[in-house]
Amino acid sequence: MTTTPDLTTMEQEKLRAHVAEVLTRARSRSTALTDAVDDHDLTRQHSRLMSPLVWDLAHIGNQEELWLVRDVGGRDPVRQDIDELYDAFKHARVDRPALPLLGPAEARGYVTEVRDKVLDVLDHAVLEGRPLVEGAFAFGMIAQHEQQHDETMLATHQLRAGAPVLDAPPPPRGRWVPAAEVLVPAGPFTMGTSTEPWALDNERPAHQVHVDAFVIDTTPVTCGDYLAFVEARGYHDPQWWSPTGWAHRQQAGITAPRFWEREDGRWVRTRFGVREPLPLDEPVVHVSFHEAEAYAAWAGKRLPTEAEWEKAARFDPASGRSRRYPWGDEDPTAEHANLGQRHLRPAPVGAYPAGASPLGVEQLIGDVWEWTSSDFAGYPGFAVFPYPEYSQVFFAPKFKVLRGGSFGTDPVACRGTFRNWDYPIRRQIFSGFRCARDPRPEELG
Ligand SMILES: [Fe+2]
């Protein structure tokens, strides 16, 4: 962990105000996502892949209670009796509906009671002297946790059948992006971070990585691009698929991205209960790693490694340093990226010229999580913080890394260094991808 030098009273107050703001923003979103449906929809399971929404809600409160009320605050438990019910490691998602969960009213009362105590803890906590509170880390971790569950709840909404209940304005318009690909020259860059105060253990520490020259797409693969693969019968030709990917494709019987359907000779997709024509210029979403990998092979390319993705996103050749975000060090605004559920869909390609990286790669942050070819693993010098269940227990080749966040990811849980992971078959998440390839000899000059 980085240590924050002694904070002045004014800096402490500024930090407290920032914490209160991000916690409040997370709670407004949790409230909006759970108030949008009735009690029946809150307590039922919309997919075996997901928890009932009411489980997510009380689990958010329980984690907040464990870390901020009990640990940081040293206060008495609010509801110690429910710890086991809301421990994600004790009950698989599929089993959660059968648990004696708090009902909607009880869950709402519980999270409110916890939050009231947390705001009081925040008023009194000393935000330095102990790694967990240094720079308000535990508060930042809990705000990220709530926002991550909000993204999960948004994915549950996408799986829910019935009339649409969510609404948001459309994203900005796309534009023609002049270069389809850029060459990233060979050389070292700084991957990960040792200075970002709320970065999680798996993003640490900063370390030098040599990356060979590679070529990467300037935009994510669109629905239109992907449709060409579908129409070329890419789902019926094992040559594009890895053996594992093909076996899964056969066994699951998938023939298109999730939520796509062929209707009267044309393709439509369903998005939060709305059926609409396929938006050809929008990044494809709800594809698995296997589908992304097969498309890339068909296109004569491959998925980027995690290091390639991060170098394309953060490396500034002019200064030789890595930025916090593709556009620079400032926090994301509405001009930079499609984040925070501001829009309920990925934005068309070219919609965020202000979000481009120094190398000219666009929409790396926001829109869709991007599959990389890398397994989830700890960086050299990795140290568990604050507990092994955050990341370390997931370091395994069975998990693939996704980068960049989606339209459903809040800025607090999205950075140039942020790492997400999932099983390569998953596609209920807001996952898409972009392609990369090795340069041709003449491109290296
Ligand atoms: Fe959780």
Automatic annotation (TrEMBL):
**Where is the DinB-like domain positioned along the sequence?**
23-153
Q: What is its EC number?
A: 1.14.99.50
Family annotation (InterPro entries): CTDL_fold, DinB-like, DinB/YfiT-like, EgtB, EgtB_Actinobacteria, Sulfatase_Mod_Factor_Kinase, SUMF_dom, SUMF_sf
Citing just one GO molecular function, the answer is:
gamma-glutamyl hercynylcysteine sulfoxide synthase activity
Instruction: Report residues binding Fe cation.
Output: H59, H145, H149
Q: Name one Pfam family in it.
A: FGE-sulfatase
Cofactor requirements of the protein: Fe(2+)
Alphabetical keyword list: Iron, Metal-binding, Monooxygenase, Oxidoreductase
Q: Which residues form the Sulfatase-modifying factor enzyme-like domain?
A: 180-437
According to the lineage, what is the superkingdom?
Answer: Bacteria
At which positions is gamma-L-glutamyl-L-cysteine bound? R93, V94, D95, R96, D422, R426
Q: What class of enzyme is it?
A: oxidoreductase
Catalytically driven reaction(s): gamma-L-glutamyl-L-cysteine + hercynine + O2 = gamma-L-glutamyl-hercynylcysteine S-oxide + H2O
| Functional pathway | Amino-acid biosynthesis; ergothioneine biosynthesis
User: Can you tell me which family this protein belongs to?
Assistant: Belongs to the EgtB family.
Q: What does this protein do?
A: Catalyzes the oxidative sulfurization of hercynine (N-alpha,N-alpha,N-alpha-trimethyl-L-histidine) into hercynyl-gamma-L-glutamyl-L-cysteine sulfoxide, a step in the biosynthesis pathway of ergothioneine.
Q: Which NCBIfam families match?
A: egtB_TIGR03440
Q: Which HAMAP family match?
A: EgtB
Protein's name in the database? Hercynine oxygenase
